[in-house]
Recover the amino acids of this structure.
């Protein structure tokens, strides 16, 4: 038996995992905002190390309104698009798992 709350949390977790994965692959694919070869993420404009809350996919982009909090350099909208696409895929996968496992 799966309640609506469990269902929502499961899909949400899938979406977050998908967004995080997409964000990570974006870092691997090309340098830019959050780009890092050492594991530390930083702003491409001012070199400032990003705080943990600035690394949250989608949420941090919205919180910062697409700009670095110190130098106001633009965060590429493609990053947000990548993370949104990833969250859709992750949520879709979670739905699939529920559909398969929940029978
Ligand atoms: Zn900056």
């Amino acid at each position: 038996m799966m309640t609506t709350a469990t269902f929502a949390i499961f899909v949400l977790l899938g979406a977050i995992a998908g967004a995080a994965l997409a964000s990570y692959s974006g870092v691997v694919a090309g340098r830019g905002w959050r780009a890092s070869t050492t594991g530390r993420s930083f702003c491409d404009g001012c070199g400032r190390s990003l705080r943990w809350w600035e690394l949250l996919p989608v949420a941090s982009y919205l919180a910062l309104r697409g700009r670095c909090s110190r130098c106001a350099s633009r965060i590429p909208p493609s990053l947000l698009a990548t993370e949104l696409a990833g969250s859709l895929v992750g949520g879709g996968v979670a739905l699939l798992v529920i559909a398969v496992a929940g029978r």
Notes: Residues 44 and 55 are 14 Å apart (CA to CA). The radius of gyration is 16 Å. The chain has a mean pLDDT of 83.
